[in-house]
Write a structure and sequence with these properties.
There is one protein chain. This protein has 267 residues and is of the alpha/beta class. It has one domain: Rossmann fold, CATH 3.40.50.150. 38% of the residues lie in helices and 21% in strands. It has ten helices and nine strands. It is globular. It binds S-adenosylmethionine. The site of S-adenosylmethionine has 17 residues, from helix 1.
Length: 267
């Protein structure tokens, strides 16, 4: 199965890449949400509501810098939505590859991407990517983890992102909703040591989780938070280096609650 082909498919076909179903009802809820968002998107764009060009430009610059993106890099984005951000992250004349769970988002790509001709997009789920192993120099998954329903699913996504990346390549899991991230960053901003802050906050985590579970028990789709410890665990047996980077995008208030995870696959 090649990039750009529609992939709802499951099982093992084409180039021998094995793709399995992992779609759960929670994943389906998010897909439906983004389907609705895709139809509302033109209205939102026309009214310039919730879109700030300066913040978008700063976010893109932050992604490029963290990924150390060069013109020669083959870049894959998972959860690319309409491809609007991907088209901005790319250098001029560079091709970009993207997959998203929601077909309606991909169909709107022509309306929002700066240069649709440079994008090769397809429909696929983050936990089952229809790409051959090691095909990409850089892999981006930005603002998607909050949609992943549980740790097992998210672990599978981490493994897929790493599989798609070549040895020595970089993976950026960006805009992760952190647990008590706001409090954490405030304390660190006041000059407290990171380890001390984590030790101080960790006894409060069960309380935070209990509140979160209670909220998640009603039917509405709720964004999920992932701790740094989740990524350390998921990467435990994978040969890679991982660093956690604060997201300091000036003017973006959400930055205080988010962080980025940068992974380098060992060569
Ligand atoms: C907040 S948008 C981010 C879009 C883009 N990455 C950006 O930064 O502009 C989240 C996207 O993730 C996609 N998504 C959610 N769950 C997914 C999954 N399990 N597999 C693939 N894509 C998913 C949604 O359809 C949506 O387009």
């Amino acid at each position: 199965m090649r990039i750009g082909e529609r992939c709802v498919a499951v099982g093992s076909r084409g180039t021998g890449v094995s793709v399995q179903v992992v779609h759960t009802p929670r994943v389906e809820e998010w897909r439906r949400l983004y389907e609705v968002a895709a139809s509302a998107a033109s209205w939102v764009a026309a009214h310039r509501w919730s879109y700030d060009e300066t913040i978008a430009r700063l976010t893109v610059a932050d992604i490029r810098r963290k990924l150390d993106l060069s013109l020669r890099d083959r870049l894959l984005e998972i959860g690319c939505g309409t491809g609007a951000s991907l088209s901005l992250v790319l250098h001029e004349d560079q091709l970009g590859y993207g997959f998203d769970l929601c077909e309606a988002q991909i169909r709107r790509a022509g309306d929002f991407a700066v240069d649709r001709a440079r994008l090769r997009l397809g429909v696929a789920e983050a936990g089952a990517l229809p790409v051959a192993s090691g095909r990409f120099d850089k892999v981006l998954c930005y603002s998607v983890f909050q949609c992943l329903p549980d740790d097992d699913y998210a672990r599978r996504v981490v493994a897929e992102l790493i599989r798609a990346c070549r040895p020595g390549g970089l993976i950026l899991i960006g805009d992760v909703f952190g647990v008590m991230e706001r409090q954490r960053q405030r304390l660190i901003g006041h000059g407290h040591n990171e380890r001390v802050v984590d030790a101080f906050l960790s006894p409060l985590l069960p309380m935070w989780h209990a509140r979160h579970r209670l909220q998640a028990s009603n039917n509405r789709v709720k964004p999920r938070h992932y701790r740094r410890g989740f990524f350390r665990g998921a990467l435990h047996e994978i040969a890679c280096d991982v660093s956690f980077l604060p997201q300091r995008i000036p003017g973006r208030s959400a930055s205080r609650c988010r962080y980025d995870v940068l992974i380098r696959r060992h060569g």
